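User: Here's a chain of 289 residues. Predict its fold as tokens.
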Amino acid sequence: MKKICGMIPALITPYDSTGNVNIKVLREIVRMNIKNNVAGFYTTGSTGEAFLLSTEERKKTLEIVREETVNGLVIAHVGSTVTREAIELARHAKDVGADMVASVPPFYYQYTKEEIKQYYRDIAEASQMPVMIYNIPGTTGVSLDYDSVGDFFKEDFIKGLKFTSKDFYQLERIKTNYPKLSVFNGFDEVVAGSFIYGADGGIGSTYNIMGGWFVSIYNAILEKDYNKAGEIQRKINEVIEQLIKTGIIRGIKYILQLMGYECGMPRKPFREINELEKSICKEILLKLL
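Assistant: Prediction complete.
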């Protein structure tokens, strides 16, 4: 298995004028980010509107990204509230050559920790793929931290963790006790700091429009130039502070549209972007140029 590290965009899913996945633009966005030297791509996750896509759309999106990403990593998010669907997506990911599958924990029904562990075990055993746990308690309501499921990281098939939490004490404890686990920061606004606590890289939404800046943070960390990493993080956070006002996915898609990539808007029940938000996005674009 390739070494899983570096800066990886959590790809948006572009739509055409009819609301279908825009394959042409998806290829263009992947190519643009490859030019920014990102380490690979994370497909159909939260930013990619995973739970607003059909199973077939998720498969097709992964196929396109794998075709375009000849030398980079491809991590396929296969999370579902239905184990059978997650397994189907994971098997497909293996068939098309993904490097790893990731999944949010099953949510809504307040499953026990043992049931959640079995969900991941079922995916791994059925697909024979290395698995990344996606810990995002703010969205799922399920916290997969060191205190609650630390022993689960001993499982051989668990190779990665997407850590979308600002509790860096938990990140440090996980990485210290399981150093072979590839741990990725999931909050873009604190990625520079996460490396101090052991993160191996980052996976994030705003990498779609600032991939080069995030790669520069990673390179600065490798060179132990922490002041430079902090300076770039501050530039990124100035953008994020404004982007939050538009809605992250909505704003990213509109900025990409301003850059020449027709992405459409997020699917309903997300609303359309309004005029004030468009003006904010135009101001953000000026900072990115």
